[in-house]
Write a structure and sequence with these properties.
70% helix, 0% strand, extended, mainly alpha, 10 helices
Length: 181
């Protein structure tokens, strides 16, 4: 008789751990009839929605901020530029998560509201000081270097793809080094 994967996994784990240690450390899935699984799923969803309804505004902000941070981490692992992860878009999303107005955020960060507007609308680039302020504003949940990585990836993409600007700037250079072989 051929053993299924779950039985094999149990045997392998049982060689290393006692039954008590396995019970404490692992969640074993159980194959249930569809009707019973459906009831369990519905109950889980009901309880989850009850919990969501009972969350305070602070808990909702904290939860959303944590999700925001996880999305950033996933983006950083991708090593590719994504237009949805520009500094301006992520700043706008952060403000929405905070459930504060642009004016209030500008005041909290020590910025004029027009400067914040220019940052959100990608008409002005951020500086390191702003990134330190955003770190502090998020209670250090979103570190300054996360904001910098978002901005740096955007800058790298711009440098790699803006051939028109590169050509314009190249024309301004006089007497370049002659290192061509």
């Amino acid at each position: 008789m051929r053993k299924n994967n779950k039985e094999k996994l149990y045997e392998d784990l049982n060689k290393k751990y006692t039954d008590e240690e396995l019970i404490d450390s692992y969640i074993f899935s159980v194959d249930l009839p569809k009707e019973e699984q459906k009831k369990i799923d519905e109950e889980f969803i009901r309880l989850r929605f009850e919990r969501l309804k009972s969350m305070t505004e602070e808990e909702v902000v904290s939860s959303n901020l944590f999700t925001f941070k996880l999305k950033l981490r996933k983006y950083f692992k991708s090593n590719k530029f994504d237009h949805e992860f520009t500094f301006s878009k992520k700043l706008k999303e952060y403000i929405e998560i905070s459930k504060r107005s642009n004016s209030e955020i500008a005041k909290n960060l020590g910025l004029h509201k027009t400067k914040l507007s220019r940052l959100i609308n990608d008409r002005e680039k951020p500086n390191i000081d702003l990134m330190y302020r955003l770190e502090e504003h998020s209670s250090k949940e979103i570190p300054a270097f996360y904001w910098w990585r978002i901005h740096a990836r955007e800058l790298e993409f711009e440098i790699r793809t803006d051939h028109e600007k590169r050509a314009i700037e190249a024309k301004k250079v006089e007497n370049p080094l002659d290192l061509r072989a």
